[in-house]
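Researcher: Go.
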Amino acid sequence: MDVAGVPAPLGPMPAPQGLVATMSEIAGCVDLMCEPVKGAKMYIWQVCADPMSEANWRQVDVNTASKMTVTDLTSGTKYWFRVAAKASGAQGPWSDPAQKMAP
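Model: Structure:
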């Protein structure tokens, strides 16, 4: 008997892979996208102004999609971005950071 809709993976969520930051066509906005994490119920998105330091990360969104647009950034400023997947209360590790200058 096949089991349909089995969430995976069992255990901790893995870090999202392939995070890409691209300049939006809108000033002060950066588009983010990562590979979907199997079993993830939501994604936690953070931004950090350059230079990157653990104390400067701030949350910009929590959503159910593996892509989003960060708004209200200062044009001409370099930013770092990261994302973590979450399922059933357990947040996985942060992705490798991606860097982009806000247009």
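Model: Residues 20-101 form a domain with the Immunoglobulin-like fold (CATH 2.60.40.10).
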